[in-house]
């Protein structure tokens, strides 16, 4: 028996902590089609978005203090991972 399973994307906010917690964008790991990402962003997060501000990048997680970390843009290589990201306009 074949079952169709929808693979939902795990889209997470990118947060800025200066001056309060504000989302600066949303991302998921991996390079996914831009239209798929935007569709999932609209359905799962109720955000009106289009592909204009969506891109494929590479990020790396680096220490940012005691027990904290942050994401930084990176070039492909050791420790870097692919992301699809939407920047809040």
Give the helix/strand layout.
Blueprint: E1 12-16, E2 22-29, H1 34-45, E3 54-65, E4 68-73, E5 81-87
Antiparallel strand pairs: 1-2, 2-5, 3-4, 3-5
Concise account of the structure shown:
The protein is mainly beta and 89 residues long. Helices cover 13% and strands 43% of the residues.
What does this structure look like?
The chain has 89 residues and is mainly beta. The chain has 1 helix and 5 strands. The chain has one helix spanning 34-45; strands at 12-16, 22-29, 54-65, 68-73, 81-87. β3 (54-65) and β4 (68-73) form a beta hairpin.
Radius of gyration: 15 Å
- pLDDT averaged residue by residue: 86
What is the topology, as strand order, of the major beta sheet?
Answer: 1-2-5-3-4
Distance between the termini: 45 Å
Estimate percent helicity: 10-25%
Order of helices and strands: EEHEEE
How many beta-strand runs? 5
Uncertain spans, ≥5 residues at pLDDT below 50?
Answer: 1-6
- Structure class: mainly beta
Question: In percent terms, what proportion of residues is strand?
Answer: 35-45%
Outline: globular
The largest sheet is: 5 strands, antiparallel
Number of helices: 1
Keywords:
89 residues; mainly beta; five-stranded antiparallel beta sheet; 1 helix; 43% strand; disordered N terminus
């Amino acid at each position: 028996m074949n079952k169709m399973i929808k693979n939902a994307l795990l889209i997470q906010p990118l947060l800025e902590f200066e001056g309060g917690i504000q989302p600066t964008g949303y991302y998921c790991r991996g390079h996914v089609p831009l239209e798929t990402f935007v569709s999932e962003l609209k359905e799962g997060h109720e955000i009106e978005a289009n592909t204009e501000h969506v891109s494929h990048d590479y990020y790396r997680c680096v220490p940012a203090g005691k027990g904290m970390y942050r994401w930084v843009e990176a070039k492909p290589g050791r420790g870097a991972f692919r992301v699809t990201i939407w920047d809040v306009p």
